[in-house]
Amino acid sequence: ANNNLLLGGIFHGGVEVYGAEWCYGCTEEEERSGVRRLPPRSHQSHSYRTTVPLGRTQLCEPEVEALLERLSREWRGNEYDFVDHNCLSFCNALSQELGVNRIPGWVDRAQRVAGGGGPA
């Protein structure tokens, strides 16, 4: 995270559910999913900063697995866009599907401001 930015930083995010962290990133292969499953807090390209509880899902583990299979097909890595379709967009989409809170505004503030979608 770059905390020297006026916007408060640019962050990578993932959602932890049932012992795995799910995140989204760029791939060059057209049909390849950008969704990745990792051990929590272990992404090699980013420094871990904090965990923000979003709530507990009412979905059982098999329902979450089916949800993530569907999202993996829908979130292709070659469609990644730094402003409009990124890891934080994925976190919010997954959180909504899980029935938990969105990520806090300070996490995606830079994305929203860059895209004209909200105040700093």
From TrEMBL:
Superkingdom per UniProt = Eukaryota
Which Pfam families does the record cross-reference, listed alphabetically? Peptidase_C97 (PF05903)
- Respond yes or no to whether keyword Hydrolase is given for this record: yes
Any single GO molecular-function term of the entry would be: deubiquitinase activity
The answer to whether keyword Protease applies is: yes
Q: Which UniProt keywords apply?
A: Hydrolase, Protease
Q: Which InterPro entries match?
A: PPPDE_dom, PPPDE_sf
SMART domains per record: DUF862
Every PPPDE domain range:
1-120
Q: List the GO biological process terms.
A: protein deubiquitination; proteolysis
Q: What's the family? A: Belongs to the DeSI family.
**What is this protein identified as?**
PPPDE domain-containing protein
What is the protein's species of origin?
Alexandrium catenella
